[in-house]
Amino acid sequence: MADRAGAGRIDVHHHFYAPEYREVMESYAQMPAVRDWTLQRTLEEMDRNDVDTAMLSLSPPGIHRGTAEKNRDLARAVNDHAAALRAGQPNRFGHFATVPMPDIDATLTEIAHALDILGADGIQLMTSYGDRWPGHPDFSVVFDELNRRKAVVFIHPLEPDCCAGIIDWVPPVLSEFTQDTARCVYSLLFSGTLARCPDIRFIFCHAGGAVPVTAGRAELMGLNNMFAEHLPNGIDHELQRLYYDVALAGSRPALAALFSFVPVSQVLLGSDYPFGATADPIRGLEEFGLDASDLKDIYRGNAERLIPRLKA
Protein backbone atom coordinates (compact mmCIF):
# COMPACT_ATOMS: atom_id res chain seq x y z
CA MET A 1 0.00 0.00 0.00
CA ALA A 2 1.41 3.39 -0.95
CA ASP A 3 2.69 5.82 1.65
CA ARG A 4 0.76 9.06 1.93
CA ALA A 5 0.67 12.38 3.69
CA GLY A 6 -2.58 14.20 4.24
CA ALA A 7 -4.90 15.74 6.76
CA GLY A 8 -6.45 12.55 8.07
CA ARG A 9 -6.50 11.42 11.67
CA ILE A 10 -3.56 10.53 13.93
CA ASP A 11 -4.04 7.55 16.27
CA VAL A 12 -1.63 7.90 19.20
CA HIS A 13 -2.52 4.52 20.77
CA HIS A 14 -1.99 1.72 18.26
CA HIS A 15 -0.23 -1.56 19.09
CA PHE A 16 2.13 -3.61 16.96
CA TYR A 17 3.77 -6.99 17.42
CA ALA A 18 7.35 -7.71 16.51
CA PRO A 19 8.05 -11.46 16.16
CA GLU A 20 10.22 -11.37 19.28
CA TYR A 21 7.37 -9.89 21.32
CA ARG A 22 4.84 -12.40 20.00
CA GLU A 23 6.99 -15.15 21.48
CA VAL A 24 6.79 -13.74 25.00
CA MET A 25 3.04 -13.08 24.64
CA GLU A 26 2.17 -16.72 23.93
CA SER A 27 1.22 -17.41 27.53
CA TYR A 28 -1.15 -14.44 27.84
CA ALA A 29 -4.91 -14.61 27.38
CA GLN A 30 -4.86 -11.72 24.92
CA MET A 31 -3.06 -13.80 22.31
CA PRO A 32 -6.13 -14.21 20.03
CA ALA A 33 -6.15 -10.46 19.37
CA VAL A 34 -2.38 -10.48 19.02
CA ARG A 35 -2.49 -13.27 16.46
CA ASP A 36 -4.96 -11.21 14.43
CA TRP A 37 -2.45 -8.36 14.08
CA THR A 38 -0.71 -8.10 10.72
CA LEU A 39 0.72 -5.11 8.91
CA GLN A 40 -1.92 -5.49 6.21
CA ARG A 41 -4.80 -5.58 8.72
CA THR A 42 -3.50 -2.56 10.60
CA LEU A 43 -3.28 -0.53 7.38
CA GLU A 44 -6.81 -1.60 6.45
CA GLU A 45 -8.08 -0.53 9.89
CA MET A 46 -6.38 2.83 9.48
CA ASP A 47 -7.79 3.39 5.99
CA ARG A 48 -11.34 2.48 7.05
CA ASN A 49 -11.21 5.23 9.65
CA ASP A 50 -9.27 7.92 7.77
CA VAL A 51 -6.21 7.49 9.97
CA ASP A 52 -3.13 8.76 8.18
CA THR A 53 -0.66 7.93 10.95
CA ALA A 54 -0.63 5.40 13.78
CA MET A 55 1.82 5.78 16.65
CA LEU A 56 3.08 2.28 17.38
CA SER A 57 3.52 1.06 20.96
CA LEU A 58 3.59 -2.21 22.90
CA SER A 59 0.55 -3.66 24.62
CA PRO A 60 0.84 -5.05 28.16
CA PRO A 61 2.59 -6.63 29.87
CA GLY A 62 5.62 -4.91 28.33
CA ILE A 63 9.12 -6.30 28.54
CA HIS A 64 10.01 -6.20 32.24
CA ARG A 65 9.12 -9.79 33.16
CA GLY A 66 12.32 -11.51 31.98
CA THR A 67 15.94 -11.38 33.09
CA ALA A 68 17.77 -8.08 32.77
CA GLU A 69 19.67 -9.34 29.71
CA LYS A 70 16.54 -10.66 28.00
CA ASN A 71 14.68 -7.41 28.71
CA ARG A 72 17.48 -5.36 27.13
CA ASP A 73 17.61 -7.59 24.07
CA LEU A 74 13.83 -7.56 23.68
CA ALA A 75 13.62 -3.77 23.93
CA ARG A 76 16.24 -3.41 21.21
CA ALA A 77 14.55 -5.97 18.97
CA VAL A 78 11.06 -4.44 19.14
CA ASN A 79 12.40 -0.91 18.71
CA ASP A 80 14.44 -1.90 15.68
CA HIS A 81 11.34 -3.63 14.23
CA ALA A 82 9.17 -0.54 14.77
CA ALA A 83 11.85 1.69 13.26
CA ALA A 84 11.87 -0.50 10.15
CA LEU A 85 8.07 -0.23 9.84
CA ARG A 86 8.29 3.54 10.15
CA ALA A 87 11.18 3.77 7.68
CA GLY A 88 9.13 1.85 5.15
CA GLN A 89 6.10 4.15 5.48
CA PRO A 90 7.11 7.24 7.47
CA ASN A 91 3.82 9.06 6.94
CA ARG A 92 1.80 6.08 8.11
CA PHE A 93 3.67 5.18 11.27
CA GLY A 94 5.30 6.78 14.26
CA HIS A 95 6.86 4.98 17.19
CA PHE A 96 6.98 5.27 20.97
CA ALA A 97 10.07 3.24 21.88
CA THR A 98 9.95 0.76 24.71
CA VAL A 99 12.67 0.67 27.36
CA PRO A 100 13.88 -2.06 29.76
CA MET A 101 12.61 -0.49 32.97
CA PRO A 102 13.19 -0.94 35.86
CA ASP A 103 16.86 -1.41 34.79
CA ILE A 104 17.96 2.23 35.03
CA ASP A 105 21.30 2.05 33.19
CA ALA A 106 19.87 -0.06 30.37
CA THR A 107 16.87 2.28 30.12
CA LEU A 108 19.11 5.32 29.71
CA THR A 109 21.08 3.47 27.03
CA GLU A 110 17.92 2.52 25.14
CA ILE A 111 16.50 6.05 25.37
CA ALA A 112 19.65 7.34 23.68
CA HIS A 113 19.55 4.61 21.01
CA ALA A 114 15.85 5.06 20.31
CA LEU A 115 15.83 8.85 20.11
CA ASP A 116 19.29 9.54 18.68
CA ILE A 117 19.83 6.56 16.35
CA LEU A 118 16.35 5.29 15.46
CA GLY A 119 14.61 8.67 15.55
CA ALA A 120 11.70 7.42 17.65
CA ASP A 121 8.92 9.95 18.26
CA GLY A 122 8.87 9.37 22.00
CA ILE A 123 9.35 6.85 24.79
CA GLN A 124 6.82 4.35 26.13
CA LEU A 125 6.60 3.42 29.80
CA MET A 126 4.16 1.23 31.72
CA THR A 127 2.15 2.39 34.72
CA SER A 128 4.05 0.15 37.14
CA TYR A 129 7.07 -2.11 37.45
CA GLY A 130 6.72 -4.80 40.08
CA ASP A 131 6.16 -3.01 43.37
CA ARG A 132 7.21 0.43 42.09
CA TRP A 133 5.34 3.11 40.20
CA PRO A 134 7.04 5.74 38.01
CA GLY A 135 7.17 8.39 40.72
CA HIS A 136 9.45 6.18 42.84
CA PRO A 137 12.77 7.91 43.67
CA ASP A 138 14.69 5.08 41.99
CA PHE A 139 13.41 6.34 38.63
CA SER A 140 14.25 10.03 39.09
CA VAL A 141 17.31 9.90 36.85
CA VAL A 142 15.23 8.49 33.99
CA PHE A 143 12.69 11.31 34.19
CA ASP A 144 15.42 13.92 34.52
CA GLU A 145 16.91 12.63 31.26
CA LEU A 146 13.53 12.59 29.52
CA ASN A 147 12.93 16.13 30.75
CA ARG A 148 16.33 17.23 29.43
CA ARG A 149 15.34 15.83 26.05
CA LYS A 150 11.85 17.39 26.18
CA ALA A 151 10.55 13.96 25.29
CA VAL A 152 7.03 12.78 24.55
CA VAL A 153 6.32 9.97 27.03
CA PHE A 154 3.41 7.61 26.40
CA ILE A 155 2.39 5.62 29.50
CA HIS A 156 0.26 2.50 29.05
CA PRO A 157 -1.61 0.79 31.90
CA LEU A 158 -1.39 -2.84 32.92
CA GLU A 159 -2.47 -5.15 35.72
CA PRO A 160 -0.05 -4.38 38.56
CA ASP A 161 1.64 -7.17 40.48
CA CYS A 162 -0.03 -6.03 43.71
CA CYS A 163 -3.52 -6.74 42.40
CA ALA A 164 -3.09 -9.56 39.90
CA GLY A 165 -6.07 -11.90 40.20
CA ILE A 166 -7.40 -10.12 43.26
CA ILE A 167 -10.97 -10.69 41.98
CA ASP A 168 -10.39 -13.53 39.58
CA TRP A 169 -13.75 -13.26 37.79
CA VAL A 170 -13.43 -9.54 37.01
CA PRO A 171 -11.35 -8.74 33.92
CA PRO A 172 -8.33 -6.64 34.95
CA VAL A 173 -8.73 -4.41 31.89
CA LEU A 174 -11.83 -3.08 33.63
CA SER A 175 -10.87 -3.06 37.30
CA GLU A 176 -7.09 -2.63 37.28
CA PHE A 177 -5.92 -0.81 34.15
CA THR A 178 -7.93 2.31 34.96
CA GLN A 179 -6.80 2.26 38.58
CA ASP A 180 -3.15 1.71 37.74
CA THR A 181 -3.26 4.79 35.52
CA ALA A 182 -4.40 6.75 38.58
CA ARG A 183 -1.70 5.18 40.76
CA CYS A 184 0.91 6.11 38.18
CA VAL A 185 -0.29 9.69 37.71
CA TYR A 186 -0.54 10.33 41.42
CA SER A 187 2.87 8.75 42.04
CA LEU A 188 4.35 11.26 39.60
CA LEU A 189 2.28 14.11 41.03
CA PHE A 190 2.93 13.70 44.75
CA SER A 191 6.59 12.73 44.34
CA GLY A 192 7.12 16.08 42.66
CA THR A 193 8.19 14.49 39.37
CA LEU A 194 5.60 16.34 37.31
CA ALA A 195 6.61 19.73 38.73
CA ARG A 196 10.33 18.91 38.49
CA CYS A 197 10.06 17.76 34.86
CA PRO A 198 7.83 20.35 33.15
CA ASP A 199 9.32 19.72 29.70
CA ILE A 200 8.15 16.10 29.44
CA ARG A 201 4.98 15.84 27.35
CA PHE A 202 3.08 12.97 29.00
CA ILE A 203 0.30 11.02 27.29
CA PHE A 204 -1.96 8.84 29.45
CA CYS A 205 -4.41 6.32 28.05
CA HIS A 206 -8.15 5.72 28.26
CA ALA A 207 -9.20 9.27 29.19
CA GLY A 208 -6.92 9.15 32.22
CA GLY A 209 -8.65 6.17 33.80
CA ALA A 210 -9.80 7.22 37.26
CA VAL A 211 -7.91 10.53 37.28
CA PRO A 212 -10.62 12.96 36.07
CA VAL A 213 -13.16 11.70 38.60
CA THR A 214 -10.77 11.56 41.57
CA ALA A 215 -8.65 14.69 41.13
CA GLY A 216 -11.26 16.87 42.81
CA ARG A 217 -11.10 14.64 45.88
CA ALA A 218 -7.44 15.62 46.29
CA GLU A 219 -8.39 19.29 46.35
CA LEU A 220 -11.18 18.74 48.87
CA MET A 221 -8.86 16.83 51.20
CA GLY A 222 -6.33 19.66 51.28
CA LEU A 223 -3.58 17.77 49.49
CA ASN A 224 -2.44 20.95 47.73
CA ASN A 225 -1.29 22.24 51.11
CA MET A 226 -0.04 18.91 52.40
CA PHE A 227 2.23 18.45 49.36
CA ALA A 228 2.93 22.12 48.71
CA GLU A 229 6.69 21.52 48.51
CA HIS A 230 6.17 19.18 45.55
CA LEU A 231 3.28 21.13 44.02
CA PRO A 232 4.33 24.79 43.79
CA ASN A 233 1.72 25.38 41.08
CA GLY A 234 -1.01 23.19 42.57
CA ILE A 235 -2.62 19.89 41.63
CA ASP A 236 -4.83 21.09 38.78
CA HIS A 237 -1.94 22.85 37.05
CA GLU A 238 0.04 19.63 36.82
CA LEU A 239 -2.80 17.28 35.92
CA GLN A 240 -4.41 19.59 33.37
CA ARG A 241 -1.23 19.99 31.33
CA LEU A 242 -1.01 16.23 30.73
CA TYR A 243 -2.38 14.72 27.52
CA TYR A 244 -5.05 12.02 27.53
CA ASP A 245 -6.12 9.72 24.71
CA VAL A 246 -9.68 8.45 24.34
CA ALA A 247 -8.97 4.81 23.53
CA LEU A 248 -11.80 2.62 24.88
CA ALA A 249 -13.28 5.77 26.42
CA GLY A 250 -15.77 6.91 23.81
CA SER A 251 -18.79 6.64 26.11
CA ARG A 252 -20.58 9.82 27.11
CA PRO A 253 -19.84 9.51 30.87
CA ALA A 254 -16.11 8.98 30.27
CA LEU A 255 -15.89 11.89 27.83
CA ALA A 256 -17.98 14.13 30.09
CA ALA A 257 -15.57 13.52 32.98
CA LEU A 258 -12.54 14.15 30.78
CA PHE A 259 -13.80 17.34 29.11
CA SER A 260 -14.99 18.75 32.43
CA PHE A 261 -11.44 18.38 33.74
CA VAL A 262 -9.12 19.28 30.83
CA PRO A 263 -9.41 21.51 27.76
CA VAL A 264 -9.76 20.07 24.28
CA SER A 265 -6.11 20.97 23.65
CA GLN A 266 -5.06 18.07 25.93
CA VAL A 267 -7.14 15.32 24.29
CA LEU A 268 -5.88 12.94 21.60
CA LEU A 269 -7.44 10.25 19.43
CA GLY A 270 -6.46 6.71 20.40
CA SER A 271 -7.87 3.33 19.37
CA ASP A 272 -6.00 0.64 21.38
CA TYR A 273 -6.05 -1.43 18.19
CA PRO A 274 -6.25 -4.46 17.93
CA PHE A 275 -8.03 -4.58 21.33
CA GLY A 276 -10.25 -1.63 20.43
CA ALA A 277 -11.89 -0.60 17.17
CA THR A 278 -10.85 2.81 15.84
CA ALA A 279 -14.45 3.62 14.93
CA ASP A 280 -15.62 3.50 18.55
CA PRO A 281 -13.88 6.60 19.98
CA ILE A 282 -14.55 8.49 16.75
CA ARG A 283 -18.28 7.77 17.03
CA GLY A 284 -18.26 8.68 20.71
CA LEU A 285 -16.52 12.00 20.12
CA GLU A 286 -18.89 12.96 17.30
CA GLU A 287 -22.00 11.95 19.25
CA PHE A 288 -20.76 13.97 22.22
CA GLY A 289 -21.47 17.14 20.27
CA LEU A 290 -18.05 18.76 19.89
CA ASP A 291 -17.76 21.33 17.14
CA ALA A 292 -15.77 20.71 13.98
CA SER A 293 -12.80 22.76 15.13
CA ASP A 294 -12.48 20.80 18.38
CA LEU A 295 -12.76 17.48 16.55
CA LYS A 296 -10.06 18.56 14.11
CA ASP A 297 -7.72 19.34 17.01
CA ILE A 298 -8.39 16.00 18.72
CA TYR A 299 -8.09 14.03 15.50
CA ARG A 300 -4.88 15.69 14.35
CA GLY A 301 -3.90 19.18 15.50
CA ASN A 302 -3.03 18.33 19.10
CA ALA A 303 -0.83 15.42 18.00
CA GLU A 304 0.90 17.67 15.47
CA ARG A 305 1.83 20.07 18.25
CA LEU A 306 3.32 17.20 20.24
CA ILE A 307 5.15 15.67 17.27
CA PRO A 308 5.80 18.40 14.67
CA ARG A 309 7.10 15.99 12.01
CA LEU A 310 3.50 14.76 11.61
CA LYS A 311 2.31 18.09 10.23
CA ALA A 312 0.67 17.61 6.86
What is the radius of gyration computed over CA atoms, rounded to a whole number of angstroms? 18 Å
Give the N-terminus to C-terminus distance in angstroms.
Answer: 19 Å
CATH superfamily: Metal-dependent hydrolases
Count of folded domains: 1
Which class in CATH terms?
Alpha Beta
Task: Please describe what this structure looks like.
This protein is of the alpha/beta class and 312 residues long. The protein has a single domain, classed as Metal-dependent hydrolases (TIM Barrel), CATH 3.20.20.140. The chain has 15 helices and eight strands. The chain has an eight-stranded parallel sheet. The longest helix is centred in the N-terminal third of the chain and has 21 residues. The radius of gyration is 18 Å and the shape is globular. The protein starts with 8 loop residues before the first strand and ends in a 6-residue tail after the last helix. 46% of the residues are buried.
Q: Notable features of this structure?
A:
312 residues; 15 helices
Summarize the structure.
The chain has 312 residues and is α/β, with parallel strands linked by helices.
Topology at a glance:
Elements: E1 9-15, H1 19-25, H2 31-35, H3 39-48, E2 51-57, H4 68-88, E3 93-98, H5 104-118, E4 122-126, H6 140-148, E5 152-156, H7 172-175, H8 177-190, H9 193-196, E6 201-204, H10 211-220, H11 223-226, H12 235-239, E7 243-245, H13 252-261, E8 267-268, H14 279-288, H15 292-306
